Amino acid sequence: MRIGLIGTGTVGGGVIQILEQKIEYYRKALGVNLELACICAKSDEEVAPYKAKGYTVSTNADEMIADKSIDVLVELAGGYNMPRKWITAALENGKHVVTANKALLAKYGHELFPLAESKGCHILFEAAVGGGIPIIRSLQEGLLGSTVEHLSCIINGTCNYILTRMSEAGLDFADALKEAQANGFAEADPTFDIEGIDSAHKTALLASLCSDKYVDFEKIHVEGVSKITAQDIASAKDFGHTIKLCGIYHRVGDRVDARVHPCLVPMDHQLASVNGVLNAVYLQCDNLGEALQTGAGAGRMPTASAVVADLVSLARSTDCGKRAALPMGFFKKENPADLVSMDETSARYYFRFSAKDACGVLANITGIFAQNQISIESIIQKNVNDPSKVCVIVITEKTLEKKAVAALNAIDALDSVADKSQMIRFLG
Amino acid sequence: MRIGLIGTGTVGGGVIQILEQKIEYYRKALGVNLELACICAKSDEEVAPYKAKGYTVSTNADEMIADKSIDVLVELAGGYNMPRKWITAALENGKHVVTANKALLAKYGHELFPLAESKGCHILFEAAVGGGIPIIRSLQEGLLGSTVEHLSCIINGTCNYILTRMSEAGLDFADALKEAQANGFAEADPTFDIEGIDSAHKTALLASLCSDKYVDFEKIHVEGVSKITAQDIASAKDFGHTIKLCGIYHRVGDRVDARVHPCLVPMDHQLASVNGVLNAVYLQCDNLGEALQTGAGAGRMPTASAVVADLVSLARSTDCGKRAALPMGFFKKENPADLVSMDETSARYYFRFSAKDACGVLANITGIFAQNQISIESIIQKNVNDPSKVCVIVITEKTLEKKAVAALNAIDALDSVADKSQMIRFLG
CB-based contact (8 Å) between B305 and chain A? Predict the structure, then answer.
């Protein structure tokens, strides 16, 4: 199988390195012949080291994609526009595609997957979600004897690192972010990660795989972690919980409940101990019961390892006659998931209110909860001796999001409430 | 794909149930046509309910296997002799095989896998190890971009349930076993499970997959959990550890270190919180780093779910032309793993000695450790006021098994030592 690779950056470089390590092993032990036929990058400088090693290199991706001798395009350039064009052209030319580009698949998968299916081509993307966790393959194959009823996942290493450090060291969000950046776990512009967009891309892909329907990532509810405070983490701990940014999928009959937001996770839940840049996917299935997979979420070698596993898998699928591509044609706009709106969801809620004084505010707050028919599980007041910093933590019983939001807005409108209040859902 | 099923017991019945649930889904969503062509069991009574439902049934497995219209044999009868004969005949007839029979594969895999390869047939066995964990598929496909350097696993639900209850409730081994039996988590004759033999079958299969060599389960070191006492569990806790029965694989250059024995696992290790009948596989890989998969280890529906996933996978591999079977031909006596002997392994050790009196015994014990050049990390004496029950716990630094055993034997020979001493290795 002749491979054309676009991108010699972190992951692309890692793929070349693994192929150099293991290509002989694949040939001997697995009977799989992989050949890195062409390495393509934007500039001569980027491809020069590979040219020097004797590889065929190119700075013209279109030309490489037009080359009929190349069987599979490995797209590791990142971004939307060029990869979309390249992958479309590759599929039109009957080439298979391997990519780690979750943003592209979340945004344009509805074009690319059906196109691949119509051309009899595979798009493999194990590296797009939790590089070190073979979750795509598990959902597409290993778990097919069961239906996924619920999935919750920690799939953004940046956010998980930040929340872990806030929890372990009591850091504020801003300091934890700075530390993450200093350690290479957060980008200079971290928006995509910390606002949950990357998690939404991945959650949409997982929800589509679980439901066999097109889950449009732009339509799912997304909250990031930038509004989580050290106080929230500390209060969660008081209640035996930790805070994690979770991607969530629930099967609700024929409908799909998919969303990304911070969650209070009980300390004895398997996701609670998934710390640092580690990723994890937790599943509840009809026949199989509970399952958890954890592993590195990103990073050069874990992601590259997933790309190479896809290449081996693809070579095994196509070397001997032809194995039909895994069905992803459902992933199109004409087959949209019927999404459950946030208003319809329910959860236990954690609220944190900043009150100007402790005297009347509690009566006001509890009154509003009562008006909205929300049962309160517990209330804790902190700093009652310092009227300028009174903090009221309320944990509710399970209630409708619609009611919770109505209560939140009513309370925020009170004169006795200072800053904007916090609302975080419990996982479950 | 026409399926011939042998065995209508727990797992076989579950497979029929899942096929009834999902066969239409597979057809519509995945384009996979599965047909339960024949259900075979020992007696008319066993097949009667299925006959009543309109299935073709049989009490003659040989006849069913000779039927050329059947594409795959699903063997869920259990035991060695008949399944070996049936599977051999099926492969000779060009049929694929799906089985959950780890004992059979560990014992006769060296005949069956090479035979399958020579006939171009698949043997799929996801259900044989950790039914709810798609670990076989992960090792054969998802993790192929990496080399497994280390694997440790909890793959016997009976033992894990017993150890969990000993730890949680302070039960003795005998009481925990009785509770497991009462709850259906242990057989009436639990020997196979509690003495580690079932874990050895599974560990040998995993070690073979990791090393591409034949790991003979009869040659790997096996210890079970029947000698673990409540005192050991409590002492391990004092040191921040829990005790788990672990299957272990280490790559040692070109050699293989595979074994099954109880381990002291640090409480913050991902395996420590795998409790009850849950199974888990923990991996350290060169490129991928650390990964963990947990899930149900056994039980009707999780195991059946894995069998059905194999059937779907197989149908997808064979419906469109032919996909070569996953290479398992290495699994033969002519390609044995060069096994590291226990003497050559090293670990930190936990020892528990029962001393007749507290006065001189400590000097004797420490003297013997010194003679064997073993560094002691810590010593705790318990019940020093009751000379008949003095208990000495010794934790050593990392040392060679050979030295540890020599010290153990020398100490056991002391007059001042009462019962046979305990020796448990730390994981790592």
Answer: yes
User: pTM for the full model?
Assistant: 0.94
Quick one: closest CA in A to B324, which residue?
A: A320
Nearest by Cα to B419 from B427, B428, B408: B408
Instruction: Quote the minimal CA–CA distance from B70 to chain A in Å.
Output: 21
Residue A418 pLDDT class (50, 70, 90 cuts): confident
**pLDDT over 60 (residue B340):** yes
Bridge pairing between strands B399-400 and B346-347: antiparallel
Segments of A49-171 assigned E as strands = 57-58, 72-75, 96-99, 123-124, 148-154
Q: What is the pLDDT of residues B198-207, one digit of tens each?
A: 999 999 999 9
pLDDT in tens, B308-327: 999 999 998 776 556 667 77
The residue of chain A nearest to residue B17, with distances taken between CA atoms, is: A287
Domains of chain A, each with CATH number or no CATH: 2-129+300-319 (3.40.50.720), 135-296 (3.30.360.10), 342-426 (3.30.70.260)
* Least confidently predicted of A5-19, A300-314, A315-329, B394-408: A315-329
| Angle subtended by helix axes A358-371 and A401-412, to nearest 10 | 150
The tens digit of pLDDT for each residue in A127-163 reads 999 988 999 999 999 999 999 999 999 999 999 999 9
- Total length of chain A: 428
From chain B residues 353-412, the ones with a CB under 8 A of any chain A CB are none
Interface test with A, best of B146, B211, B331 (most A CBs within 10 A): B146
Lowest pLDDT segment from B115-124, B145-154, B317-326: B317-326
The answer to whether residue A254 neighbours chain B at the CB level (below 8 Å) is no
Give B-chain residues touching A126 at CB under 8 angstroms: 142
DSSP code at position A54: T
pLDDT(A303) > 90: yes
**Residue pointed to by tokens 């390869």:** B117
Task: Note whether B134 and A142 are within 8 A (CB).
Answer: yes
A295-321: average pLDDT? 87
Q: How far apart are CA A166 and CA A158, in angstroms?
A: 12
